[in-house]
């Protein structure tokens, strides 16, 4: 009797934008194809399909990931965020709002990937991660100034064929400033609460 061939499909559950989605996929199915073709989350765009353009960038456990190189089966149990899940109801994410306000797009095809990448990039910078253009890479130096040069380097994995780079850099700069203000406000509130508790 011939041995049973191994199965080439698996039933998986993906946690996407806070919702669990069950599906059966071929083991070779990329996260990009699962999102677009199986789950109708078409905000994530297919560009080069080789991990070079960044159009398919999503957040996996809050880290930017090119979905065309990530197998869907390897994403099970991880927190996946796509552009469809960034807004809070009618309130856009600050990065989305900055792209809208500053025209950080033209045709818009690369915009979802640019936005997801920018969200993760801002957090990477705030955590003190250096880039190839960071002058002082010592951990104790803290985050470097988020200059246009730093932003361009950190966003270099996302291509814009329309050439909206100037506005993209401005949008990322604005969103990073909004995040920094929110963090300062939160720290001020915590300081006041501590002082009140000590009094």
List strands and helices in order, with pairings.
Elements: E1 9-16, E2 19-26, H1 31-38, E3 57-60, E4 63-66, E5 79-81, H2 94-101, H3 111-126, H4 148-154, H5 165-198
Parallel strand pairs: 1-5
Antiparallel strand pairs: 1-2, 3-4, 3-5
Helix pairs in contact: 2-5, 3-5
Structure description:
This protein has 199 residues and is an alpha+beta fold. It is 37% helix and 14% strand. The protein contains 5 helices and 5 strands. Strands 2-1-5-3-4 form a 5-stranded mixed beta sheet, with helices on both faces. The protein is globular and about 80 Å long. The mean pLDDT is 93.
Task: Please name the defining characteristics of this protein.
five-stranded mixed beta sheet; 37% helix; globular; alpha+beta
In short:
With 199 residues, the chain is of the alpha+beta class. The protein is built from five helices and five strands, in the order ββαβββαααα. The longest helix is centred in the C-terminal third of the chain and has 34 residues.
The helix/strand series, from N terminus to C terminus, equals: EEHEEEHHHH
Oligomer: single chain
- Average pLDDT: 93
Number of strands: 5
N-to-C span: 81 Å
Main beta sheet, described?
5 strands, mixed
Shape: globular
Radius of gyration: 20 Å
Helix count from the secondary structure assignment = 5
Strand order of the largest sheet: 2-1-5-3-4
Beta-strand content estimate: 5-15%
Structure classification: alpha+beta
- Pick out the low-confidence regions: none
The percent of residues in helical segments reads: 25-40%
């Amino acid at each position: 009797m011939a041995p049973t061939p191994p199965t080439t499909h698996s039933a998986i559950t993906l946690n996407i934008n806070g919702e669990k989605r069950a599906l059966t996929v071929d083991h070779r199915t990329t996260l990009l194809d699962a999102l677009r073709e199986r789950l109708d989350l078409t905000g994530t765009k297919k560009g080069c399909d080789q991990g070079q353009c960044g159009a398919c960038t999503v957040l996996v456990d809050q880290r930017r990931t090119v979905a065309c190189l990530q197998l869907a089966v390897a994403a099970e149990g991880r927190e996946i965020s796509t552009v469809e899940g960034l807004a809070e109801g009618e309130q856009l994410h600050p990065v989305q709002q900055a792209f809208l306000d500053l025209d950080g797009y033209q045709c818009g095809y690369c915009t979802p990937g640019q936005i997801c990448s920018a969200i993760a990039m801002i957090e990477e910078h705030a955590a003190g991660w250096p880039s190839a253009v960071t002058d002082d890479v010592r951990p104790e130096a803290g985050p470097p100034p988020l200059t246009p040069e730093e932003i361009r380097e950190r966003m270099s994995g996302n291509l814009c064929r329309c050439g909206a780079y100037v506005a993209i850099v401005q949008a990322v700069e604005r969103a990073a400033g909004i995040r920094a203000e929110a963090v300062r406000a939160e720290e001020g509130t915590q300081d006041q609460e501590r002082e009140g508790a000590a009094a």
